[in-house]
Amino acid sequence: MNGFLDGSFDIPSDLQHSWLGLIGLHLREALLPVLAGLLLALPLAQLCVRFRWLYPPVLGATTVLYAIPSLAFFVVLIDYTGQTELTVMIPLAVYSLVVLVPAIVDGVRSVPQETLAAATAMGFGPVRRYLQVQLPIAVPAIMAGLRVATASSISLVSVGALIGNQGALGNLLAAAQKYDRPELAVNSVLTTAALAIVCDALLVLLRVALTPWMPNGRRPRTAARQRPVPEDVIR
Amino acid sequence: MTSTAKSSWSRTRHTGAAAVALTAAAALLAGCSSGDTSDNPLAGEKAKAGTVVVGSNNFAESTLLADIYGEALKAKGIKVTYKHNIGSRETTYGLMKNGTVTVLPEYNGSLLAYLDPKAEQKSAEAVNEAVKAKLDKKLTILQSSPAEDKDSVTVNAQTAKKYKLTSSSTLADLKEAAPDLVIGGSPEFQTRHQGLEGLKSVYGLEFKSFKALDAGGPLTQAALTRNTVQAADIFTTDPTIVKEKFVVLKDPENLFGFANVTPLVHKSGLSKEGVDALDAVSAKLDTKTLLELDAQVQLEKKDPLDVAKTWLKSAGLA
Amino acid sequence: MNVLNFVNAFFSDSAHWHGYDGIPQRLLEHVRYSLLALALAAAIGLPVGLLTGHTGRGGNALAFIATAARALPSFGLLVLIVILMGFGLLPVMIPLVILAVPPILVTTYEAVRSVDPAPVDAARGMGMRESRILFQVELPVALPLILSGLRSAAIQIVSTATIAAYVSLGGLGRYIVDGLYQRDYEKVVGGATLVAVLALVTLAVFWAAGRLAVSPGVRRR
Questions:
Q1: Smallest Cβ distance to B40: which of A36, A38, A84?
Q2: CA distances (Å), B178 to each of A100, B164, B174, B246, in order?
Q3: Could you say which of A160, C90, C155, C157 has the lowest number of CB atoms within 10 Å?
């Protein structure tokens, strides 16, 4: 067992990274796309809130994009962006966008009409009202979307191993097969899962910090509780 | 929503936090995009002048050979970076052409079969001449080594017993049995001439079905051992052939041709010194050596880079 | 434009329409993997979700399990299990089920929890047994959300079942993986199109199921 554990951190030279190096690479390949997705999703979602007719077609388009398997996405992109990290990151950014747009739209829409009216009455312009009232109130919904996007992004990076060492921790899976060393696959799965859990916990902490009015970060127990955002809409 | 009333007091904090987050995000993204162009081959930027990029396909021997080439070049003071496990020849050939990869370990006859499926393979020299004629103008091959590693159709012990196949049997002897057998190989084996297509046109073999596995790797070895497939494309230097008592079928029509380990290079990327270094490697590498080195990687689980370095030292090349 | 050409070439090649590597066969395999995985995931997620949602207990434990399950990388799990167990249907089912349980479980829990407490109290006041309250009051109201959880799980399964091809199984992923190694974009794009169409069909099926199963009174809200 001892040898088994030793071996699992003995990363083959052709991956060109130490274990920590792979972790860093994995985080970069997974989180940058989520961030890019968020930056694109915010204005897009605002447009959907502003022009209601825009939302159904956007939702339809995003569902189709989400249904395209990551591997197919990678393979088609190779022709344009080569066998690089970017090829892995573009689809992940698209998936994040797909998850985040509905989450933000529903979050912003859930702000009660009277709240908006109050803000207007206080002399808030539309931009200020969006940034200081609607967005903060939508934070829990956005964070729920971010959690799903982050978890799926961290998981999907591994598939990049199939297009030539672009899967960070996923490259360990290919190496495990190539050199018949299952312990490398165990390492890959456990490390990836640990990264996902840590990132998730950080997002929960961030939400608690961003929404000081919510009791202790737990869901409020009052009857006026928000209608739950269905997973599917988040997605 | 009692929360709305309270949210006004934390207003400034939110704006502050949002601004910080946005700045950080923008900075990260900017960093990301500038970082990416440097290793994006289609951004118009070729490998940095003077640096040789050694690539490898997605199987253990290719990684090992790439390490041997790379370390031999480094010993001559040439700057080397590796681009490992790229994929199949169908992919690597494109990357060689556009200059993303400068040096790739290849197999002369297999490369010819890819460039010209109909080409006859009579001798190693003739094969090399034909390859040079068919290669993209920017590419060439260097001297071949005596070390050979062919694709082969190999059956497992129980299939050999059932159909009375021995090491002197040929592919033609499989004709009767083939419709009952599932054959396995890498996904590209299905469409290559040195694959299902050639087996059909040259030997008239039509199998029950094809199962896509990996390039002679552990999936293929396991599938053959467990009789998930009864025949498979296995590399002749595969150490498991002896271990599992697989039977390699003879190929009298030379469908799988010659497969001498040969460096494929992007002409403009390699100096005279580099060419000499690789020629010296090819002169010393024979099939027996290759088998031993493969066994060290695949059976003894040594790291290919260490195996490469040790051998180069013992051969006086580094 | 390019992509459309690929799609056209893929579907008009008659060789792609028959045999063990033909579209009908691969489609059938894909649907089979997907349905089996969805059935298994529903068999785990629905009862647990309904029960915890009804009693209102175990929400935190549930959230933790869902987070942990979501954190496990499907592709990694698949490769690991195949290395340890060899080929077969089971190694593909495990990651797919683990992928599909969290959305079903969490959505079902939330759906039952979010049912308006007034009718539930009324039912209890009328002397209904707990099981009848769950199935006759809470379930009908929660059904649209529960269906949306199932739908989201189904779409993820359909899209993810493609990775089965990497470990030598069939399904539509075969075209994508083979296309990658054969450098055959026609196959990759054709395979991806089939998967996307299958996902849209899944959406349509769930929409129809919602129409049929959800009571008009609930639907109107």
A1: A84
A2: 53, 13, 6, 17
A3: C90
